Amino acid sequence: MFADLAQMVAYIQDNQDTFLELLTEHVQLTAVSVVIGLLIALPLAVVASRIELLAKPLTWLAAIGQTIPSIAILGLMLPFLGTGFMPALFALTIRAVLPIFLNGYVGIRSTDRAIVDAARGMGASDAQLLLMVELPLASPVLFAGIKTATVQNIGLATLAAFIGGGGLGDLILQGLGMVDPPVLLAGAVPVALLAMAAEVGLGRLQRVVVPAGLQIGTR
Amino acid sequence: MRYIIDHPERMLELTQEHVRLVAISIVVAMVIGIPLGILITRLRWLEDSLIGITGVLYTVPSLALFAILMPYTGLGRTTVIVALVLYSLLAIVRNTVAGIDDVPAATLDAARGMGMTGSQRLLLVELPLALPVVLAGVRVATVAAVGIATVGALLGAGGLGRLIFDGISRGNTDRIVAGALGASVLALAADWTLARLGDVLRRDVRLNAR
Fold first, then answer.
1. Is the ipTM value over 0.90, yes or no?
2. What is the tally of structural domains in chain A?
């Protein structure tokens, strides 16, 4: 095992430029898809929390969407968008919307009604209620959704290699094709570390972003 | 859709392969995970490290975990099953701990007052009361495993993922849709079945508690 790891490190050193390029692609795929996903999901969550009629079908759709295998979503981009970075990004964005929307909606809906009433009583407008009361209170749950989407999309970006989307999955596919463990590991180990780093890093960030009064009980 | 209508036997065969893969993994994960959960409730200092390890394992992307395991477990079902077991541990261990922790102290005191030994309390009181929560963990793990298992087809583990990968390499959308739809329906069916089973168990626990 350690021999394989040593060979892996040697392979990465020998192919530094390619490796860095793939790593950059991987991070771009993940970061861009999560940011666009957030921009789509958050307004949707707000709309769903305001319009009761839409809430049920939207949450239902998101829950069912979660059961469609990621590799299939990537595959289904092929006939419409072809291969490459953009189709992969599109598929990843769809996947990022689901957990962020669900968590955002649940977060806003679970705001204590008494607090909302109090805000109303103080004369808060709709916008103030949303921006100063509901969203801050929903932020721990919303942030958990963003974390889920990020870690999940780091994994998904590995599969992007199947439709020519690049990323570290390229090395895994190459390693699988040639049954070459060092190449396989050169893709797999950095991806695994990246996912763990995102989990830990976003956990830290949560402590900075989420209002201090809501930190109790979060790790 | 046409593929499903034209090849019902093939669909059935791949679905069976898929179910077998997931079922074996979940059963193995329960056999390992439930005792681990019980152990944590007895030896509290293990909690952070064990839950931490299963949590870290859960963040490793599926294709990466397959790739890391493959040099040691080879191409084929073993690698996929080992990976699925590792992924399922988090939900099962965490829920076993939560389920046992949720047992009311008064109930445990009563059991002790009736002269039950430690193992009797565990088997006759704690585990039956924790069962619905444990099952909720099994449900989460199963739904996730159905999805992850599709990627396992890449390593020759079979299942509905084969249709998806075939479709991608041949540019055949019909096959991709057939595989995706099959896996999606399977996940929803597993979710629904385990949810109903959970309802039944909960009702059962409540009736017996009276």
1. no
2. 1
